[in-house]
Amino acid sequence: MLEFAKFICIMPSAMHQLLPTPPETTHILLERAHHLAGMTLGELAKKLNEKTPPNLLRAKGWVGQLLEKALGASAGNLDLPDFPQLGVELKTLPINAQGVPQESTYLCRVSLPLQESEFYLSRVWRKCAQILWIPIQASSQLSLLDRKIGTAILWMPNSHLEATLKKDWEELTQMIRLGQFDKLSAHHGTYLQLRPKAANAKQLVTVTNDQGKSIAIVPKGFYLRSCLTQMILREYYA
DNA sequence: ATTTGATCATTT
DNA sequence: AAATGATCAAAT
């Protein structure tokens, strides 16, 4: 009775689960995200017909891309938040066995030479003005298949955090503007930091330093320190 | 070549 | 153990 299959239509509601279209409101997005809570990555991958890699060694972005697919993120790898119409950025948050974020969170690359002059027009602000955080079990003891998805948090920085992020951004970009690449490292910034962001350390861009000399440096990216994401988790799951 | 998704691996 | 610096894959 294989013929009968053509009479079976995928209902919109079922389709909705498998291949979500971009969510129209943040409420719908959050509802979808909450629907995933408790599910394992293996279960979600199976639903989406995605093969689970043996580990993340050669698939570092796999978890994030799986969740993007599950929730209907539409920005691809354009320089926009994952849900452009909502201004919401999606971030998975790896949680270790102790219940704290295992890693910092990548935000975006730095344009070198710097093209942005104001925090509120910056890529950093566009991406961290509103973030959907999805905690993911990430204990190395657990196989990728068995790691569970937590309850998503739709987060916006409060005014204090916003001010700190703005200050961090202004200090970091000021160093870049002044060409102080010698002192530029991940040590600066309260919540925001600058770190290398490239395929490898041989990938270089040419910039002008504070001596007026052309030098080659590894491209940089903005990251959120894990002390910030730890605070966010504490607030929401208290 | 770049940007996205990040985690890996070494140093502190 | 935590933080910094290095790296991997896919998409375009």
UniProtKB/TrEMBL annotation:
It is found in: Cytoplasm. SMART domains: MutH (SM00927). It holds the Pfam family MutH. Keywords: Cytoplasm, DNA damage, DNA repair, Endonuclease, Hydrolase, Nuclease. The keyword DNA damage applies. Residues 71-168 form the DNA mismatch repair MutH/Type II restriction enzyme Sau3AI domain. InterPro entries: DNA_mismatch_repair_MutH (IPR004230), DNA_rep_MutH/RE_typeII_Sau3AI (IPR011337), DNA_rep_MutH/T2_RE_sf (IPR037057), Restrct_endonuc-II-like (IPR011335). One of its GO terms (molecular function) is DNA binding. Its main location: cytoplasm. One of its GO terms (cellular component) is cytoplasm. GO terms for biological process: DNA modification; mismatch repair. Belongs to the MutH family. Sequence-specific endonuclease that cleaves unmethylated GATC sequences. It is involved in DNA mismatch repair. This is DNA mismatch repair protein MutH. It comes from Candidatus Berkiella cookevillensis.
